[in-house]
Amino acid sequence: MHKVIPRNESHAVQFTILCFSDLPHLQVPLFIIFLTIYLNIIFGNTLVFLAIVFDSYLHTPMYIFLCNLSILDICYTSTTLPKLLFMLVTQHKTISLVGCMSQMHFFLCFACTEMILLAVMAYDRYVAICHPLHYTQIMSSRNSLVAIISVWILSLLEPVSFTVLVANLSFCSSNQIDHFFCDASPLLKLSCSDTTHVNMITYLLGALIGMSTFMLTLISYVYIIFNIMKIHSAVGRSKTFSTCASHLTCVLLFYGTTLSLYMRPTSMYYPKQDKFFSLLYIIVIPLLNPIIYTLKNKQFKDAFIKLINVLSSLKYK
Question: Is there a domain that residue 138 lies in?
């Protein structure tokens, strides 16, 4: 049933983000925890980025994609955590309509970027394991560069129509967002406009980006697993699988949370549950990515040692 919009209805000029208002006694501890996590995300992903940049042996498609993932994780968390930290420490929780739409837009951009980038990384592993003789030709420097540029351009443009539609909705019932950032679901929940067309766009974009990248990733891993099973040696199977185990872990964590949150009707918005799952993919995944990708990677350990030596030599010059 369509909602009726009064003629004298006006658009909200600012919102109040409730954050964790139901936990007033934990505002300071939450600030300390989130600040520590944010600094670790920046530090960990910056180390990965610098290690890849300074080590010529890591200038391969797989590590170039991982370098972009590190940049992305820093950008991803930076759209939400600095504002959240500011609100926790000052208790000033208002945000303008423009600020809210900007935060939502760039958050969606970086979410789309991660989905597409993870799919490209899965395809890279598929080619490396299933077509090793053609790897250098298929994943050449030129093709890898085109893939990276395409990922960023497509992701920056894809949410534009959705952002414009949401910005033109009316929020006459309330301006309180029961979340810790301007996410799409709580915003649509507040609107007293007819959101049918916006919901339709959400599902279409979700199917176009979310489901298509998920299917590409899934198909890549089906072929990878079949190919690994053909290897007779147990050591060979283990060694081959280890080259994509870290990526598969990140894929499962990311898609497990994002698809469950966004591929559903806006009526099924549960604030406490959604805040928890949002924290998983906004904070936990970018924090774990550098650890997951480097923990058992000898090349990365060697690259880190080289990076430390480079930084040490610069320090004492």
Answer: yes
Q: Supply the DSSP string of 43-99, one letter for each residue.
A: HHHHHHHHHHHH-GGG-SHHHHHHHHHHHHHHHHHHTTHHHHHHHHHH---EEEHHH
Q: Is residue 7 part of a domain?
A: no
Contact 198, 104 (CB under 8 A): no
Low-confidence stretches of the chain (pLDDT beneath 70): 1-12, 173, 259-271, 295-296, 311, 313-317
Pair of tokens at residue 103:
């935060």
List alpha helices for the chain, DSSP H.
27-54, 61-78, 81-90, 97-130, 135-138, 141-157, 160-167, 184-190, 196-205, 212-229, 234-262, 271-279, 285-294, 298-315
Q: How much is the pTM?
A: 0.85
List the structure tokens of 173: 């019932």
- Distance, first Cα to last Cα, the chain: 71
Q: Is residue 53 part of a domain?
A: yes
Task: Give the domain CATH number at 224.
Answer: 1.20.1070.10
Domain that holds residue 72: 14-315
| 5 assigned to some structural domain | no
